[in-house]
């Protein structure tokens, strides 16, 4: 005997609450990684790396709740799409948390030399854009806004352009001054992880389209 549709709606709301928390925690992790870059505080970096375990656990809890809801309620149509998309979005967010942790690990390996010549300003701009994409993806999900979801994907081109400029800037700086090689190579990894965060935000936008319209569309 299945539980009532009302129970299914309550479970979906619980999952949405957890997913909203994961969105915010991942966004905060990216912001905190940039704070680590600004002051290169190794203790902050280590804390951020450790906190990634909490994000992993939250993702697992969301996935488990979705699977239990599917098994116990046997949802169909839109309800089933909601739960499948929620699991996929949680997985994308968990990977973004991994990227924030990887950024912190890269920062911990930098030396004390200035980062100005190796793209410090560019990478901060990438971080702002990445967090904006994540915020818009969250709002698109919460409001079933497919137009906003498409805007998220469009911003990814801008993030890719930042990445190309970052590569040019850092490689030129390292050619001019070999002393910048360590920090420059780490900064490229920081930028790469931010660029990958943008890709994940685009994947979340695709899940919004799947939830709302039932379409499977590549927004890259």
**Integer-rounded radius of gyration:** 19 Å
Taking all residues together, what is the mean pLDDT? 92
What is the number of beta strands? 0
Q: Tell me the structural class.
A: mainly alpha
What fraction of the residues are assigned to beta strands by DSSP?
A: under 5%
What's the assembly state of these chains?
single chain
Biggest sheet, open or closed, and with what strands and sense? Answer: none
Descriptive overview:
The chain is an all-alpha fold and 220 residues long. The chain is 85% helix and 0% strand. The protein is built from six helices and no strands. 41% of the residues are buried.
Topology of helices and strands:
Blueprint: H1 5-39, H2 42-73, H3 77-108, H4 120-143, H5 146-176, H6 181-213
Helix pairs in contact: 1-2, 1-3, 1-4, 2-3, 3-6, 4-5, 4-6, 5-6
